[in-house]
């Protein structure tokens, strides 16, 4: 099984569409047998599903993610587990152990670029921030 995590500096990155890299782990028997870091290549929201599919990823662990990205990943056969935080590698280990803690408010709804919303530092206006995670 291949599991990818939106990552930056070893931590779960909180905005799928702007993730700088993915930690990609191969797991067998509930344990990680290899891991590598794959650059997002500065790909935008739409192209990231292709990056993961090209790396044969089956499951994505992420912080925040929008509905369009979830749909694109689903079309590529990639299961999404959102609302993750903390260490990227620890998230993979917890996922494999069945103990991964997630938030229920992980869907990003800012793609309309409405006035007054920012998400994980990606500002679209003044007056609203998501404190590092996305929600509606």
Structural commentary:
- The chain is α/β, with parallel strands linked by helices and 136 residues long.
- The protein has a single domain, classed as Dinitrogenase iron-molybdenum cofactor biosynthesis domain (Nucleotidyltransferase, domain 5).
- Helix content is 21%, strand content 29%.
- It is built from 3 helices and 10 strands.
- The strands form 3 sheets. Strands 1, 2, 3, 4, 5 and 7 form a 6-stranded mixed β-sheet that branches. A two-stranded parallel sheet has the order 6-8. The protein has a two-stranded antiparallel sheet with strand order 9-10.
- Helix 1 packs parallel to helix 2.
- The longest helix has 10 residues.
- The protein is globular, with a radius of gyration of 14 Å.
Low-confidence stretches: 110-136
What is the mean pLDDT? 80
Give the fraction of residues assigned to helices.
10-25%
- Could you tell me the radius of gyration in angstroms? 14 Å
CATH architecture name: 2-Layer Sandwich
Beta-strand segment tally? 10
Number of continuous helical runs: 3
Name of the CATH homologous superfamily: Dinitrogenase iron-molybdenum cofactor biosynthesis domain
The CATH topology, please?
A: Nucleotidyltransferase, domain 5
- Level-1 CATH class name: Alpha Beta
Number of domains: 1
Q: Kindly, what is the distance between the CA atoms of the first and last residues, rounded to a whole number of angstroms?
A: 32 Å
């Amino acid at each position: 099984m291949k599991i990818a995590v939106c990552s930056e500096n070893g931590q779960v990155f909180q905005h799928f569409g702007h993730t700088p890299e993915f930690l990609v782990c191969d797991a067998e028997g509930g344990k990680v047998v290899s891991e590598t870091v794959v650059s997002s290549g500065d790909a935008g929201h739409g192209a990231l599903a292709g990056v993961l599919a090209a790396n044969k990823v089956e499951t994505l662990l992420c912080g925040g993610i929008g509905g369009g990205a979830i749909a694109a990943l689903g079309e590529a056969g990639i299961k999404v587990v959102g609302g993750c935080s903390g260490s990227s590698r620890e998230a993979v280990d917890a996922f494999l152990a069945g103990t991964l803690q997630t938030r229920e408010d992980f869907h990003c709804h800012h793609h309309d670029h409405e006035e007054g919303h920012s998400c994980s530092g990606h500002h679209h206006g003044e007056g609203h921030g998501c404190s590092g995670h996305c929600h509606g």
